[in-house]
Amino acid sequence: MAALAYTLGKREINYYFSVRSAKALALGAVLLLTACHAASRRYRGDDSCEYLLSSGRFLGEKVWQPHSCMMHKYKNSEAKNCLVDKHIVFLGDSRIRQLFYSFIKIINPQVKEEGNKHGNIPFEDKSASIKVDFLWYPEVNGSMRQRIKSWTEGSVAKPHIIVAGAATWSIKIHNGSNEALTQYKINITSIAPLLEKLAKSSDVYWVLQDPVYEDMLSESRKMITNEKIDAYNEAAVRILNSSSRNSKAKVKVFSVSKLIAQETIMKSSDGLHLPESSRDTNAMILMNVYCNKIMKPIDGSCCQPQPPLTLIQKLAFCFFTLSIIGYLIISLIHRNNYRKNKSCTDLEMGEEKKPAINTPNVSTLEMLLHSFCKLGLIMTYFYLCDRANLFMKENKFYTHSSFFIPIVYILVLGVFYTENTKETKVLNREQTDEWKGWMQLVILIYHISGASTFLPVYMHIRVLVAAYLFQTGYGHFSYFWIKGDFGVYRVCQVLFRLNFLVVVLCIVMDRPYQFYYFVPLVTVWFMIIYATLATWPQIVQKKANGNCLWHFGLLLKLICLLACIYFLSYSQVVFHGMLFAFIYLALQKRQMISEGKGDALFSNRVSNVLLFISIVSFMTYSIWASSCKNKTECNELHPSVSVVQILAFILIRNIPGYVRSVYSSFFAWFGKISLELFICQYHIWLAADTKGILVLIPGYPMFNVIVSTFIFVCVAHEISQITNDLAQIMVPKDNSTLLKRLLCIAGFFFGLLLFSAMQDQSRH
After folding, report:
1. Which of 76, 97, 112, 341 is the most buried (most CB within 10 A)?
2. In what residue span(s) does the NXPE C-terminal domain sit (predicted)?
3. Are 176 and 228 within 8 A, CB to CB?
């Protein structure tokens, strides 16, 4: 009864929610979200610098997340490259002095907080000609005004960056009197025009006052209350904004420090000054505001303008536009012809005839244009997600729950969709699709959760990547060994399916081929496997069955390949996959293993021993990976030990007959589009080329992940279908036609390289 309910439940889900309806829903969601974000940008503005300086939240305790954009963590070498030949001035009280020290520690982490606390403090980095000064002006008064005025006159060189702010000393010295606030308003009103004048040629920031932790303040500071601080901040914002209302040059109000202080001031040592981690965050925000537009870091989307379209991107846009227009024209012509010939009735016979109006050439052209039409729309979505400043991006932040809870969810779904396999051979097609599927889902969760910072998870994910390479060796070796098909058609089909999407993304997203590292990796290994087996003497199963010596000949080839791999220091996992395929197929041919439904792979005793060894090996690796302390040392051992984990999994999955006879159709479905999922995640699920997370629905992290994942999976599935359709057209079986296509493709890549060289030359 339970089994019947289980089967009926799956049928109900599949009946009411097909792939076609899912894609239609995803398209509607994309159009709606695009319209909403475009309207929001138009209404609220699209200056991410404003968001960086004014809003954000903490991820955990120490990671600051600006609203709508990503913040880069600058290293000292990057900071020096950005600030070379620059003069920066921090002007204000003890809080500004703290910010000064945090800022210069980005340039030189060895700096110590020494010097006169109530005096000027200079800093200079001679290697990069960077000069940073702290000028002690604890009050907004005539002295501060005179200093700022000196920069507006021609006699003194203007600093490139000015960071100013003060108020707490005025509150303290004048015991929080209203007269002091009135005088503060007068003084800042007189300073505002000078700051605006400086802002025309320099970057000027006015730092608002952080709240205090009143319970910790000393008796001499008890008059500094948050109510007074708010009044001073309100006056500063109103006057500075009023001064710059009709001016393009604008003093930037640094108000985000208030938000940071509200969360961290309780950890202050005296209730007035921020803890070191909060000061460092403020300094890093300043660095991002100024340097992102200069250094253009991938994971620093705040304050970065949208990159201009390259020549190749413009040509791609024209191509996809023409494809859409061409498809619409052909569709209209076919529809009109169909209507005219819809009811062709033979008067004598009284039969309705439907003439065939689609010739093979026209239908092929229509399919080609239709595929490029869909691909053009999808690539537009890619560009909007990860190159245009339309959708928001956020930094990753790892927690154990963000990784392990989704793993449990997909495991439950995988078990729910368990079905019987069509065949019970070791690593049959359904089982390998299932294997690729669950591995890909785990890798996706690993990427979006930022789990690479947790070493045990990182080491296990490396095994999954190695398992993909193992499957590459196993699958291609098995095909060439059994089929003996070394024709150009087979090679071109594989290369097209592997590389088509990546080539398109290289063009549309302006990224080098090596950026999508996994595809170049498996492409090279496919060619190595092909070259190894296709070169003389070609040894295949049919030839080896006639003479056992050919098996030794093939082993000799594999040994030579292994020697080359070791000599070139490549990973041996692909070789292990090829060797496993050879041994397995040899055992299968000699009927030394039992692959019947429900049968154990070996005799009971052998099966039990191998299962025990496999389980112990599996657990031993997990224990070792969990105890890793140093990533470099563990990575050195990984190539040698990962194959043990892979072989252990294969034996555990295949020795028991009842386990080998079932598979998860849920995981297998994802396995069929695993390549597309891996590549598409770079731009439409993650963001900033995998460094961050795409935000379609801000403010609701869980709902955002659900919606973006749904769209991402639908897009990956559609691209898989487009690739398969285009492979049938672009890679024909006829050798003469295929040769012509190859010449055209070679010409295309030559032109692409030519345009790329021109593009690089224009950039430099």
Report:
1. 97
2. 64-134
3. yes
